[in-house]
Design goal:
There is one protein chain. It is built from six helices and five strands; from the N terminus they run E-H-E-H-H-E-H-E-H-H-E. The protein has a five-stranded parallel sheet with strand order 3-2-1-4-5, sandwiched between helices. It has a single domain, classed as HUPs (Rossmann fold, 3-Layer(aba) Sandwich). It is α/β, with parallel strands linked by helices and about 140 residues long.
Length: about 140
């Protein structure tokens, strides 16, 4: 059984990872941690300058997370996925590729206007996933 979670540097992402670890333990599943990166690179060349540094840092962080989980007896992988269209599509492609039984995502509070103007990766994932989705809120800002 495969469980997928998407991670970023945001607090809600940390909450989702923590819950995904719990679910992997409960179910005896393999946890696949996906770090999406690079959204907006083509429109913003300034972001490109730090891309290789950020990519290496993300991979290093992933190695550390997987090692800590292995110490706890949890089978996990960590992969950095470049975003070609948007983060939601990238995450959903991984879920489909792995035939995931569960997807765990973090939610953040946003006003209705903020959602309308900026869209919502979480909403796109919830509506597009072919497997059950566990949406986790963080206690921060509540």
């Amino acid at each position: 059984m495969n469980i997928v979670t998407g991670v970023t540097s945001r607090p809600e992402s940390r909450a989702a990872l923590d819950r995904a670890v719990e679910e992997a333990q409960l179910r005896g599943a393999t946890l696949h941690i996906v770090r999406t990166m690079g959204e907006g690179l083509s429109e913003n060349p300034e972001k490109l300058a730090g891309w290789s540094r950020d990519l290496e840092a993300a991979r290093q962080e992933g190695d550390e997370v997987v090692a800590k989980l292995a110490e706890r007896g949890i089978d996990a992988t960590y992969r950095v996925e470049p975003v070609e269209r948007d983060a939601a599509s990238t995450l959903l492609e991984v879920v489909e590729e792995l035939d995931a039984a569960l997807l765990v995502i973090g939610l953040r509070r946003r006003s209705p206007v903020g959602k309308l103007v900026l869209g919502s990766v979480s909403q796109d994932v919830l509506l597009g996933a072919e497997c059950p989705v566990l949406a986790v809120k963080t206690d921060e800002g509540a």
